[in-house]
Amino acid sequence: MKKDKIMAKSCIVYFSQTGNTEKVAYTIAGRLQGEGFEHVTLQLEDAHDFPEAYVDADILGIGFPTFFGYPPPHVMKFIESLEGNGRHAFVFTTYGGCTAGDSLYDAARALHERGFAILGGLKVEGFDNYPQSIWLKINEGRPNELDLARSEEFAALAIKAYREGRSLSPEALATSNLFFVKKRDKSRKETMAAMRKKIEGKVVFNKEMCLFCETCKKSCPTKSITTGEAFPEFSWKCIDGVRCFQCVRVCPGKALLYEQPISDKEYKRFLKGIADSPEEKARPYVVA
């Protein structure tokens, strides 16, 4: 049954550390608005204060950066709090160009289990903001104009699928990357921990360099940094224990430093070992 294109509601809820996912979110939002949807775009941290924006949206988009091949745990927790009741949803992710892993599949599967019909999924390459990747300039300049054009194309196709009443199985968004295929039946937390153990460095706080400007506190996506008596206080809860290193990136006094665990050569070798095949790279999106 075809959907009425008049007065339909849409909402995008996204988490973005560095602005990559936000760029894609607003590109898709622009297409939804241009197609006549009554649309709201929300950061994940604000979503709980505005449930009216998404609880009855005809189309719900969920966007996030890929963390070690999967969605950030707090994004999955948000999805698991939703009730789809037959409404439509799509997912999108930004990733450092090596692999998006099973991030689209996991998010779409969780949405489907909550009662949503899945319109499709989009993966967009972005500048890899992992500390070691930053100084190696991996995927610098992404997402670029072509990436955003593909994002708008995806949005147009997803809207068409919605109006024609089509949906797809979450399995259509599963990666063909053998590293993740072999681990698909294993615990995501276990797989992420094994990957992180090889490359995740420590954050070192140098009090003598601290300007007490609280830039780290203001930028922390999980509010894990609070005001102390003399210096910021770090709980290191981060994103369910997964470091995003946002505090390291934004600290103007360089009081927060990243302790590199492996050499650049070893790091590049690790990325090569989990990289997508050219065929997997060639499918930036899948739509019903």
From TrEMBL:
<dbReference type="InterPro" id="IPR017900">
    <property type="entry name" value="4Fe4S_Fe_S_CS"/>
</dbReference>
<feature type="domain" description="Flavodoxin-like">
    <location>
        <begin position="10"/>
        <end position="159"/>
    </location>
</feature>
<dbReference type="Pfam" id="PF13237">
    <property type="entry name" value="Fer4_10"/>
</dbReference>
<dbReference type="GO" id="GO:0016491">
    <property type="term" value="F:oxidoreductase activity"/>
</dbReference>
<protein>
    <submittedName>
        <fullName>Flavodoxin</fullName>
    </submittedName>
</protein>
<dbReference type="InterPro" id="IPR001226">
    <property type="entry name" value="Flavodoxin_CS"/>
</dbReference>
<dbReference type="InterPro" id="IPR029039">
    <property type="entry name" value="Flavoprotein-like_sf"/>
</dbReference>
<dbReference type="Pfam" id="PF12641">
    <property type="entry name" value="Flavodoxin_3"/>
</dbReference>
<dbReference type="GO" id="GO:0009055">
    <property type="term" value="F:electron transfer activity"/>
</dbReference>
<dbReference type="InterPro" id="IPR017896">
    <property type="entry name" value="4Fe4S_Fe-S-bd"/>
</dbReference>
<dbReference type="InterPro" id="IPR047964">
    <property type="entry name" value="EFR1-like"/>
</dbReference>
<dbReference type="GO" id="GO:0010181">
    <property type="term" value="F:FMN binding"/>
</dbReference>
<feature type="domain" description="4Fe-4S ferredoxin-type">
    <location>
        <begin position="201"/>
        <end position="230"/>
    </location>
</feature>
<dbReference type="InterPro" id="IPR008254">
    <property type="entry name" value="Flavodoxin/NO_synth"/>
</dbReference>
